[in-house]
């Protein structure tokens, strides 16, 4: 009896010990921080529970059955880091018949295409595995083409064909157009400027590629770049792991100016408005820079890293922070006008419905999707009665809508 | 609690993470080499503790026959038994929990090292963002070295080894380490525990390093275990001698019939050690020498005795 006790007890203790080791590292598995997409009168969002959900913009209720993008419990998680994109595709041989498809890239190398078959009935049309590595950046669509980068350094171009099958249902096929194998992994979403794709790679390069897959120019920097580039005012704008923000000439790749005040990396895609580029950094600051000179106009500090892109609403700028707060600041001065602490890390982009820009939508680390109304004086307030938590999470009783207690 | 976490991070994790990244950039962006160098540096830094722990264990082991004698003598009087035991430890300058002290100091360092390796090679974007907070801003070289290229031979050091090679190496190196550090048992119960630990620990850690019982340790950590064990074996060999390894490998050289002889030899060694120790105890009492002298004398006698036995074979 004693030997059985020892034989089993010691391995169990060792195993528990190892689990304790794993637990106390503070690390997480890939869960994603996918940003939602406003599509018509619905919010399409990827949850951190491998689901794509379709929510009512006004109250956060589910308006269609969610799509489970994990086929079995034994599969690796299909975290989503990019934003779903909507694209109008015409049926082969037709110039009038079309469908609007939603494309979502998942961490495990799939691109899913989703179609609203009938009102509030969304289904996956096709799931295409394009790589054995991962997809962390988002998808860029242009007419019937898809461009996506993968962590093994490949930039893919696919031609998407839409046709009807024998039963009359829509069917999609992915046709390889070209692939470029870069030295560094691609964690960013390519940007489209005229007939060029601009992308960054983890080996510290920025590339301009034409739509036929020919590299126009490449520029090498000292450190990795994960930030997706913004193209504005004939400039390529991005920040790197050397804590420097860069402006390059979009046609040649030559450096226009640099900004070196940040104390940590740049991760999120910057945004631009009226001659000012807004650059969020992992040092917790949002920097407002003059686009012509790179001179700092103002900055404001949050208590933790800013991982997602901010949003401009009229004369206000809104950003989320890993410190668990949404900050609303005046666009001209950077003065913080309002703050709402939801007590959960915010890493997604902040988005809005362009038809009703007073409301912002974002996801949080507690696997919730949330909406806040930004009043004209800059004060944020709850818009939905409760955040959206996936059914899976409710079943697991890990979090409940009653957890909604923001300090707005 | 948060405060303790911050102290833990600033005193242990941050310096370790930055050192690892610095070594990585100095080792031509080879994280495998960086882990090997880092493990050797850490083990070298902890050498005084390791030596102290090993000496305490050796001294404790040398006192086992005497302890057994006291247990037999005061079988019916627990209190007296305890008093005599403590007296014996005191007389010999041995602290019965002295060998635990260095171990307790080493444990947080090993846990921190584990965390540092895991944090330095994140494979998920979430964890890369977390890593940025651990890097020193005043060391631009460190910031610019990220992300770490985690390929080392066939391994992705951020993920478990897809083959069984590294898990086997973890198990084998841990077996050698166990073999070197396990002291001779003085009763059947202890011998049984020793035997079980000798096999169970390597098997368990080998399994943890593989994908067989769920997601295994990242191979960077498994590499650390292998190097750490090998360095530990070498240190232990210099402190307490290479006999366990010599015995192990000479055992492998023997014919099928010979293990019995070897085993008998091992048993004989134990009995012999016991006798030698008793003699040395008498000698110490007569001469009034210190415990360290006594232990050293025991070591010398054991060596002479082994030499005699080898010659007679």
Walk me through the structure.
The complex is a heterodimer of chains A (408) and B (313). Chain A is mainly β and 408 residues long. Chain A has a domain at 30-181: Lipocalin. Chain A has two helices and 33 strands. Mean pLDDT of chain A is 88; it is low at 1-8. Chain B has 313 residues and is an all-alpha fold. Chain B is built from 14 helices and two strands, in the order ααααααααββαααααα. Chain B has a two-stranded antiparallel sheet with strand order 1-2. In chain B, β1 and β2 (155-156) form a beta hairpin. Residues 256-292 of chain B have low confidence and may be disordered. The interface between A and B is large, with 39 and 32 residues.
Brief overview, please?
The complex is a heterodimer of chains A (408) and B (313). With 408 residues, chain A is mostly beta strands.
Total helix count of chain B? 14
| Overall pLDDT of chain A | 88
User: Can you summarize the main beta sheet of chain B?
Assistant: 2 strands, antiparallel
Global shape of chain A: globular
Q: What does the radius of gyration of chain A come to?
A: 22 Å
User: Got a strand count of chain B?
Assistant: 2
Sequence of secondary-structure elements of chain B: HHHHHHHHEEHHHHHH
Bin the helical content of chain A.
under 10%
CATH class of the domain at 30-181 in chain A equals Mainly Beta
Question: Per CATH, which architecture of the domain at 30-181 in chain A?
Answer: Beta Barrel
Low-confidence stretches of chain B: 256-292
